[in-house]
UniProtKB/TrEMBL annotation:
The keyword tRNA processing does not apply. Residues 1-20 are annotated as: Disordered. The keyword DNA-binding applies. Residues 1-10 have a biased composition (Basic and acidic residues). It comes from the Bacteria. GO terms for molecular function: DNA-binding transcription factor activity; transcription cis-regulatory region binding. Residues 19-79 form the HTH tetR-type domain. This is TetR family transcriptional regulator. Keywords: DNA-binding. Residues 42-61 bind DNA. InterPro entries: DNA-bd_HTH_TetR-type_CS, Homeodomain-like_sf, HTH-type_TetR-like_transc_reg, HTH_TetR, Tet_transcr_reg_TetR-rel_C_sf.
Length: 201
């Protein structure tokens, strides 16, 4: 098992490259969050588990919330980045966008660790609705821009509200303890798509 040095660098096996403090903090925070839950894990516990200075989280991230945002974006962001970046907003149907968004959730829920990541994501998002995400596809604006272009008369603010509701429903369904059936996923995609693409009022 990889051990960490006093400054938070993972010692690893003899002769291996030490793990940078920032990476060590993310690794141990992930393990603690998945085992004990976000709310029960303190910054002090994360630093202690990483064998780092008690101010390490503040130095590298700012707050526990900022560390969690960095963790979720680093672990989950790559699953969406390429598929979403390949979409052409001018011609891609919103139903296809929703399908691209939901597909990684389906894969994650089939993996025990992935399912825990989903539960952590859902709980964090619902508890921190104004979290400052830095990853492009964790922000509502790119989705709102596509939707506003697809639905005549829909304002950017209304498009954001629709996507916010859509993502809340997706996270609520996938962030639970049950694994969604194929029929349930199909119904979810259809329902979200219908809500997003309803005529502007």
């Amino acid at each position: 098992m990889t051990q960490t040095t006093r400054d938070g660098r993972g010692a690893g096996r003899r002769g291996s490259t030490p793990m940078p403090t920032r990476d060590a903090l993310l690794t141990v925070a992930e393990r603690l969050f998945l085992a004990d839950g976000y709310d029960k894990v303190s910054v002090r516990a994360i630093c202690a588990a990483a064998d780092a200075n008690t101010a390490a989280v503040h130095y590298h991230f700012g707050t526990k919330d900022d560390l969690t945002i960095a963790l979720l974006q680093s672990r989950l962001g790559p699953l969406w980045a390429d598929p979403l970046a390949s979409l052409d907003p001018a011609v891609t149907p919103i139903a296809q966008v929703v399908d691209v968004v939901v597909s990684p959730f389906v894969d994650l829920q089939a993996d025990p660790t992935g399912h825990l990541h989903l539960r952590l994501l859902a709980r964090f998002v619902f508890a921190h609705p104004t979290a400052s995400w830095t990853s492009h596809w964790f922000d509502l604006d790119p989705f709102a821009d596509m939707l506003a272009e697809a639905v005549p008369g829909l304002t950017a603010s209304e498009a954001r509200r629709r996507w916010a509701l859509g993502f809340q429903l997706i996270l609520l369904r996938f962030g639970g303890t049950e694994t969604l059936s194929t029929a349930a996923v199909t119904a979810l995609i259809g329902f979200v798509t219908a809500g997003l693409t309803a005529p502007a009022t």
